[in-house]
Amino acid sequence: MSSKLLRGTFILTLGTMISKALGLFYVIPFNMIVGKEGTILYQYSYVAYTIVISIATAGIPLAVSKFISKYNAMGEYGVSRRLFKSGLLVMTCTGVVCFLAMYFLAPFLAEINIPEDDLDSSVKDVTTVIRAVSFAVIVVPVMSLIRGFFQGHESMGPSAVSQVVEQIVRIIFMLAGAAAVLYIFKGDIVTAVSISTFAAFVGAIGGLAVLIYYWVKRKKHFNSMLDEDKQQITDISLGSMYKEILISAAPFVFVGIANPLFQFIDTITFNRAMAVVGLSAVSETQLNAFNYQTHKIVIIPVSLATAFSMTLVPMITRAFVSGDQKSVNHNLNQAFQILLFITLPATIGLSVLAEPVYRLFYGTTDLALGTEVLRLYAPVAILFSLYAVTAAILQGINEQRFTVLSLLVGLLVKLSLNMPLIERWEANGAILATALGYSAAIIINIFVIKVFAQYPFRLVLRRSVLIIGFTFLMYVGAEIVYKLLGLFLKPESVISSLLMVGIVGLAGGLLYIYLAYRSKLVYLLLGERAASIKRKLRLPF
Asked: Which residues are listed as membrane-spanning (predicted)?
């Protein structure tokens, strides 16, 4: 890989990480401004919007960048430019159609979310909020395509800057708008939340403006490339290119919308199931706790796993296509082991620190409920990560069609079990149904990998036992430190919660790293990078 591409990949990864971090931590001031009622209303629009945005952004930029890069490498700059121009028209039409669909279907979406009149939110309120966020769908597809154009030219900076600016503009408008409505203009909570969801459109305009700036700045360079066009490909049609793009993008779209679809099932079934057992009064509070508040926290290690999984595809594809079974097995061994090595202790540590972590984000509102939900929900992130990685591996071995099958089976399991389990165990039942649905999808993916990649799981299973053992010892050590700190620190204080998270996290992390180095496991997984990390951090073991 060239130094230019390495630098570009680093810039894009950094931009994505900053954007995701901003998207996580804004919930703290947002919760303080709009309170529980506002966050409950916000999450009804959040899931539907996430599904639409995932479809628009999960596959298109990557697929477009792939084909622009392909034709540029062939010297056919005219073809890639023709693809880009037609893509702008297609994405504009797609954005407008999706906006109109979401806007006019808002009452229907609201009705399937609000089945009872005695809930805190009303159909009218949810309709207003969904319609406010739908405007963003006009801009996002076009913005995604332009990002793909820059990435196809190995120019990652514009996409990275665009992502960060989009998030910053969105968060500033969201927080300032909600605060202004409630505290300056003395408006109602529905208006405040509508302004907050409309912020997605304002943020998208900010991100698009950045991309337009870079386009104007580099237009002369892009046009100069057309002067070197070989013009040898004249018979390729836009229809055939779009067909290939859609086939290439589809697996990434399905991976991107998997989690939002599981959330959507909860959104449309949870209130109904709770009404059946006479718990409508607490239904929205519990739905908000696991489907929005704790989900925002749980998804942190999943984001790392998803980013990691996307880097696997070319490496595994190269080994698989060349018929190098040894390299395929080695790459898959590393992929599964590193995934478990990172996500297992992270999720278990999050479960241990559920109470102080929840308090840091959401204060003491519904603290007991939030703590219980986060403690149970955190380990499910392991399944989220495994699904993302196994789906990426299927793409790498050219069996991406099974991604659709596994997701549909997982969703069917979730849909079948959700209401009975919710009626039995409330929010915990919904979490259990999610875990079972993801498990079914992962089992199918693993079976396909074993059959089509002829991959033996023996080594991964042996190492998994070792990783689980180290994680258990870390859990015990973290629990001891947590209990001891509880004797001295007041749990009600935000500062105390921050200290608990920092000290317990550091203690547990150091114990886990110590065990990994002493057992030489980290050297087996990371090779020379493990020694380099040890030298840089000056670890004594």
From this structure: 12-34, 46-68, 88-109, 129-146, 167-185, 191-216, 245-265, 297-316, 336-354, 374-394, 401-417, 429-453, 465-482, 494-515
